[in-house]
Every structure is written in structure tokens, then in C-alpha cells.
Amino acid sequence: MRDVAIVGVGQTSRTPDYLRKSDNMSWKDYIIEAVYEAIADCDKGLNPKDIQYMMLNYHGEAQIEAGGIGPVVADFLGLLPIGCTALCANCVGGGVGMHDAYAMIASGKYDRVLCVGFDKTWDLHNIGDKRAIGGDVEFDFQYGYDHPTLQAIHQIYDYQRYGKKRILKALALYRQQALWFSSRNPHAFNYKSKASIDLEKVYTAIDALPEDDNYIPEDFWDMFPPSALVDGAAAMILVPAEEAGAYSDHPIYLDAIEYKMNSHLMSHQMNYPVHGMSQYTMAEFAGCQLAFREAYKNAKIKVEDVDFMNCYEPHVSSLLPFVNATQITGGDDQKALDFILDGQTGFGGRLPVGTDGGRGLFGMTSGSNFGDCVYECVKQMRGLGGERQVKKADISIATGMQGQMASVVCAILRNSR
Amino acid sequence: MNNMFPEPIYRHGVMRTTKPWRLKKQRYRLIGSKCKDCGQIWWPARKVCGKCNSRNMEDYALSHTGKLLVHHYGPMAWFLDPIQGFGVYGTDRVMSMVKLDEEQDVYITPTDMCDCDPESVRDDINVNMVFRKLRREPNGNWNYGFMWAPSELKKAEK
To answer: Could you tell me the residue ranges of all domains in chain B?
Structure first.
């Protein structure tokens, strides 16, 4: 097995100014922009014709011209006759693509693999289908439960398990941290945003809520800037580590990348009677725990080595299992929530999370969510984080999840060999 | 489209009438599976045991009673329109997950609580399975399926 490195990353901007042009841009334009930025990011040069294979992903579920888009994309990128694997795995598709690209490079099959993920929601044939699943097609969805409604149930389960007020306070604090990062990221939806979160006012409102009731007044959410569901693309180029210096003065090494799944049925997430999974409920998220454990093992690192993380975290029920899976609190999920409530995921904290503004406030683009996390990790590790540059950026985690807590890819990135 | 049907035909790709029909045993009577080799009970019914990989499965009639694990009373759609054909009982619903009265831990895929004041629903109450209309197909057909009702109500009816 060969070691693997990232030598170039690219990303479309998610700022409102950029997105205003979206009526005049197709999903193809987004892909071209991200891919050619990644190629240009190989500062020692990479001829596009030298790319040997492409991993391409998008959200799935009735997405744009679904089926057989590989040759179309390879054509408009000028990469024919390379092969392409086009895949759909909701928000973690970019991670699945990177996982397979890693295997291709590590095995010696290819030497230069391009990964690209994208989404352009408003070109959908049928937006009603896209929101669809987030769960099982024959039961959850056929019973009228789509992604947001399943998420609502999950959130309430977290209220039960961790306490509603603690969960909401963690959400508020994390949102404030994410807004801080996002407003300092020139690519983010909230760049230079004047929005703010009055934490004292939010906490007072939370304290006034009854603990034993799921009710939350609608205007409660008005105290937060909303998540930005936006269009875009992200790309990266993987090569063998020993050849990385030929393409970039500052390659980032991919020490491990692991992909683990649990059932997409919410009922199975509560109890899956298989060794290694049965101890987890949907709150702890088996796929997340298992992917992190395997990644740490293969990268030969411990939590003490990890400097920061970018993950999928627009709601606390997804942020919490990721923070818990890092083992930063020894695998105790209640303590992991305390860790968040203590502000340790913010700038200057022990484990900054969502340093690009997080998926919610950077701009959530399902197909490129994972690629966006990798992009941010690479920029930070090269010291290009600007105002939001974290103090130590030697080892980072890029991770993401699929649909309604269905699977996780966990990548461990290292600054030097 | 063809000469006989020149107009564009629109329907949701994942909302086919055949799906609920094919699954009527599970939807109407809560039939799951039991592995004849390891004894594991599964919901929904399946052809391969997820625990021991046996294909030696049989139908298993699951209990029609259980405990409400978690519920959420709220609108069935937020930033998107409701899924086509739902909303038979209004736009708000009591979304619920139930743990069945079985020796093994069996949780049931989310569906609605009904036959009660939504505001009165509390977690941990005992519930009974009931059979209700779920959704109206674009062609007018009704889809049916199970929901949950508080057990106390069931007793009162008797």
C-alpha cells in the first residue's frame, strides 16, 4: 500500500454575491470552477490530461439528470477518455469518493485521481423528490416522513437523552462560534455578515422553556441566522505521497480514511443486534463511532494529536456524535455535550470545529459538503486560514455524514510526513 | 408521452401505488420476520437475517401494543411543501416512534399517533396499533397503514 496525499483543492464560493449569478450558471459551471481551481492549486503544475480517473458525486434522489453523467462531466472538463465513478451518498458522497480514490492511489492502480462533488438544487426536475428520503424508501417515506420530519424526531430523542435546555444551549453556542468563523471566511455565505446571536437573550429564552415539553415557540429560531442551503462544488486531487512534491510545495497527507454505515431506518438505529453496533442508539450514531475508531487505528493517532475538525454539524444531534466520536471526552457523550457547552469547539478552544463556518453557516451543499470540509482543513493546514487561522494545524479531521445518520466517512489529514 | 397521451405525465418517482400494495402484510398487520436459525426478530420484514446472514426466515406477527418512545407534534412540512397526498388529517401531525411489547428490543418505523388530543400525548404511554387511511393517491386511491392510539382510549372504547 502506498501513502496518499492531497496536492490541490478547489471550491466555488457560497457568498450571496456569487450565488446571485446562479441563474446564469449551470451545475457544469460549478464543477468546472472547482476542478480547475484544484488543478491550479497544484502550484508546481498539473496537466489536466494527466488526470487518470475521476470520482464524481452528488446528493442523489432525483438529482440533476441523474444517471450516466460521468461521460458528460469528463467531456466538459476536457478529461476524456478517463474513467469515472459517479456515485450518490447524500451529504457524504464526497467522502465516499475520496475513500475510493484513496484506495485507487494506495493500491497503485492510478497515480492521479480527481474527486469532485456538486449540487445545484434549483435545477432539479422535481424538488419534491430530492427532499424525499433521508430514511427508508418503503417505510419512512411511504409513511410521509422525509428528511426534516425524521430529523425532528431525532432532535426530540436527543432532548430526552441529554435534556432539552442543554441541547438548545449547545446549539446556540455552537451557532455563535460558527457565525464567528463564517463571517471571517471569504468563501462563506455569511462572510462579513452583520448578523449576531445574543447569547444571553437566547439562554434566557431557553431557561424559560419547560424542560418536560417538546414545545419550542416558532419565534425562538428567529434569534439565529438560518442555515444556508446553497449550490456549489468542491474538488480535490489525490496522488501518491512519494510523488506529491512534484505537484505541490505543500501537499497534505491523507493518513487514513474510513467509511462505516449503519441502517438508514431510524427504527434500526435504535437497536441493531450485531456485535459492535448493538450498544449504540440513534443519538450515538454507530457509523460515526466505528468510522472514527478505525481511522484513528489506521492513522496511528490518538485524540491528543487532533488539532481541529470540520464535520457535518448544522444541528446538535449531528455535531454531538462527531465530537463524542473523537474521544475528546473518552467516549462519554454527556461529557462531550459539556465540552461543547464549555465553548471548546470555538476559536481558541481545545478542538475548533467547523472552522469555515460549518455546513449551516458556510453554506450547505449536499454533494460538496465533504469536499468543503477537506478544502477548509487543507487551507488551515497550509496556514491560509486568515483571520480564522487556528493556532495549531498539524493534524485535522474531515468528516461527514449521510442522510438521516446513515453513514460516516472520517479522514485524518496530516501536515507533514 | 405518446400519441395517446400527449400531455406530460407528472408523478413522484418514489411514490408508486405498488409499493404500499406489495407491503400490505407489513402495513396492515405489522408482520415482521423471525430468523429460524438465530431467533432474531426484525421489523420491517426481511429476506436475510442481519445478525447471522441466514435466509431461513419466516413471517412473524409482531405485537400490536407497545410504548411510545419519542414523539413530536408539529407541522408535517417546514421549508418544503408537504409530501404529495399526505395531510389527510390536517397539516400538523404527532410524529412518533414506538418500542413494541416484545421480548427482544423491536422499534417501529415512525408513524403518527391518532385518535387523541395531540397536546395530551406524552412519551412512555402505552399504545395500540390501529389501521388508518394514510394518503390519497393522485388517482384518487387511498393508501392505508398503521398508526398508534393511546391504549387507555382503547380500553375506554371496550
So the answer is: 18-157
Question: What would you report as the CA-atom Rg of chain A, rounded to the nearest whole angstrom?
Answer: 20
Highest-pLDDT range among A133-147, A261-275, B8-22, B66-80? A261-275
- Whether omega before A81 lies within 30 degrees of 0, making that bond cis, reads yes
The predicted structure's pLDDT at residue B1 = 41
Question: How is chain A split into domains, by residue range?
Answer: 4-129+229-235
Asked whether B57 and B33 are in contact (CB, 8 A), the reply is yes
C-alpha cell at A221: 429560531
Task: Please give the angle made by the CA atoms of A267, A271 and A277, to the nearest 5 degrees.
Answer: 125
Query: What residue type is B57 in one-letter code?
Result: M
| Sheet with B57-61: strands ordered across | B41-42, B31-35, B57-61
pLDDT > 90 in chain A, percent:
79
Q: Do A138 and B12 touch (CB under 8 A)?
A: no
Give, in order, the Cα–Cα distances in Å from A35 to each of A85, A116, A355, A371, B68: 16, 7, 22, 11, 49
Q: How many residues does chain A have?
A: 417
Q: What order do you get walking across the sheet with A407-414 strand by strand?
A: A83-88, A53-58, A113-119, A232-240, A4-11, A252-261, A407-414, A395-402, A308-310
Could you tell me the three cell numbers for A376?
477548509
- Find, among B75, B63, B74, the residue nearest to B103 by Cα: B63
Beta-ladder partners of B95? B72, B112
Query: What does the alpha-carbon distance between residue A359 and residue A208 come to, in Å, rounded to a whole number?
Result: 29
Q: Are B75 and B91 in contact (CB under 8 A)?
A: yes
Superfamily of domain A4-129+229-235 in the CATH hierarchy: Thiolase/Chalcone synthase (3.40.47.10)
Give the pLDDT score at B88: 78
Question: Which residues are CB-contacts of A217 (< 8 A; sequence separation ≥ 6)?
Answer: none
Q: Is A62 left (phi over 0), alpha (psi -120 to 50) or beta?
A: left
Among the partner-chain residues B71, B84, B109, the one whose CB lies closest to the CB of A143 is B109
CA pair distance A206, A148, nearest whole angstrom: 22
Helices (H), chain B: 18-22, 24-29, 151-157
Q: Does ipTM top 0.90?
A: no
Stated pTM of the model:
0.94
| Nearest alpha-carbon partner for B89 in B69, B105, B70, B73 | B73
In what helix (H) or strand (E) does residue B142 lie, and over which residues does it extend?
Answer: strand B142-150
CB A362 within 8 A of CB A372: yes
Are A230 and A364 in contact by the 8 Å Cβ rule? The answer is: yes
Average pLDDT over every residue of A108-136? 76
- ω before B44 within 30° of 0 (cis)? yes
A212, closest residue in chain B (CA to CA): B122
Tell me whether residues A267 and B72 touch, CB distance under 8 A: no
**Binding-face residues of B in 59-98 toward A, CB within 8 A:** 69-74, 76-84, 86, 93, 95-97
pLDDT digits (tens, 9 = 90+) for A266-282: 999 999 999 999 999 99
